[in-house]
Design goal:
The chain is mainly beta. It has five helices and 23 strands. The protein has two domains: 9-241, no CATH class; 250-395, Jelly Rolls (Sandwich), CATH 2.60.120. Strands 14, 15, 16, 17, 18, 19, 21, 22 and 23 form a nine-stranded antiparallel beta sheet that branches. Strands 1-12-2-9-4-5 form a six-stranded antiparallel beta sheet, with helices on one face. A six-stranded antiparallel beta sheet has the order 8-7-6-3-10-11, with no helix packed on it.
């Protein structure tokens, strides 16, 4: 498989020009770095993505990155070109699977003209949609294996461009030309907080669906022009905003998750750790989650009766238990998380031990020093016949 490339060292040095920003989770849902905490394909599921440029005057180029659930490695990436007030939509699905249900051929499709046709300078349209196929059968020649059945997605703003600002008639070719001519180093002022997005899990093309707004990080201020085939994201040491500041923004604990566990109804809780990838290649043993960090699930029914649910390790330890070791994973109530005889209620999910995350030791502005928790995005999804619900977990602090 072809490996992702890094930009030249000189360009990286240029990219570091500027000061770190106070990145935060946006309260109004717009930012310059979006995270869809999960996607699902296979088993009758597909996922729809939508990215909106809320600026009325500026065009935006952004990179869509699918990340592996275990390692957060970039498994697929492409650029989208958004004119003022533009929307990009796309769908990821599984076209073939093995006997165990693991996807062997995944497809991203989009009839939106904000994406180019693969290996072409032309843009997609309703009559000629873009189709990006990742197939295990052809990985030796394409370097692109099928997407895993689950993972998560990032949308990284490369830059905003003043292409005929404030007027109609901005073409995708205009935006492409501006991006192509732009230097590798991106100014901090070139990444306004104008992107918003949603992720929708769906049973088939027309089945029941649940939509979740993407997490929007504001003032991330990406410092390098994004390019297909080159590594992008939080794991780059050359980024203007340190990982410590992102972990500070995502810090969480003591989460309330409603659940059902009954015939034909079941709730799953998802955990996404988007900063874990920063430490994948370390050789000194440091990792953002201490070896003793666990997920505790105290389970309640609707009448305030309670049981102690399971405890799960969330670090990649060499010995058992290794229940929850991936960058993204989900746990099912009634299967992974015991609910006893309870059919419905809520769980208080907490991270039981202080972590060794970078935000607690490296950030001068940290408010989380000594505060139990982890940098995570947690959601809950309930699936029943004919209906999905999907929401972010609420803090009980």
């Amino acid at each position: 498989m072809f490996k992702k490339r890094y930009v030249a060292a000189a360009a990286c040095a240029l990219a570091m020009v500027g000061t770190a920003s106070a990145v935060e989770v946006s309260r109004n849902g717009t930012g310059d770095f979006l995270i869809a905490p999960a996607y699902f394909i296979g088993g009758g599921l597909q996922t729809d993505l939508k990215v909106i440029n809320t600026s009325q005057t500026q065009s935006v180029v952004a990179k869509v990155v699918f990340r592996h659930p275990v390692s957060s490695a970039e498994t697929l990436d492409f650029l989208i070109y958004l004119s003022p007030a533009d929307v990009w939509t796309g769908t990821v699905s599984c076209a073939a699977a093995d006997a165990n249900g693991n996807c062997t051929r995944s497809v991203v499709t989009s009839a939106d003209d904000s994406i180019q046709l693969e290996n072409s300078a032309s843009f997609a349209s309703a009559t000629t949609p873009a189709t990006i196929v990742s197939d295990n059968a052809t990985v030796a020649t394409t370097g692109r294996a099928a997407l895993p059945n689950q993972g998560y997605v990032e949308v990284i703003m490369s830059s905003a461009y003043d292409v005929a600002p404030g007027r109609p008639g901005v073409t995708k070719a205009n935006i492409l030309a501006a991006h192509t001519a732009a230097p590798l180093s991106v100014a901090a002022t070139a990444t306004p907080n104008v992107l918003a997005g949603t992720v929708t899990a769906r049973q088939g093309a027309t089945g029941p669906a649940a939509t979740l707004p993407m997490v929007a990080l504001a003032d991330y201020n990406n410092s390098e022009k994004t390019q297909v085939g080159f590594v992008s994201g939080l794991d780059l040491p050359t980024q203007r905003t340190p990982v410590a500041d992102v972990e500070e923004a995502l810090w969480t604990n003591s989460l309330a998750v409603p659940y059902v566990n009954d015939t034909g109804k079941q709730t799953l809780v998802t955990f996404t750790f988007p900063t874990k990838l920063t430490y994948n290649n370390r050789t000194d043993g440091q990792y953002p989650f201490a070896a003793t960090v666990c997920i505790n699930a105290n389970v309640f029914d609707n009448s305030e009766n309670t049981i102690v649910g399971n405890i799960f390790n969330i670090s990649p330890l060499p010995t058992a238990p290794q229940t929850c070791v991936s960058e993204f994973q989900y746990l099912l109530f009634g299967a992974n998380i015991a609910t006893g005889t309870f059919k419905e209620g809520w769980a208080s999910i907490s991270f039981s031990n202080p972590t060794a995350a970078v935000a607690q030791t490296s950030s001068n502005q940290s408010t989380n020093v000594g505060r139990v928790g982890v940098p995570a995005i947690v959601t809950h999804m309930t699936i029943e016949a004919g209906r999905f619900t999907w929401a972010y977990a609420s803090s009980t602090r």
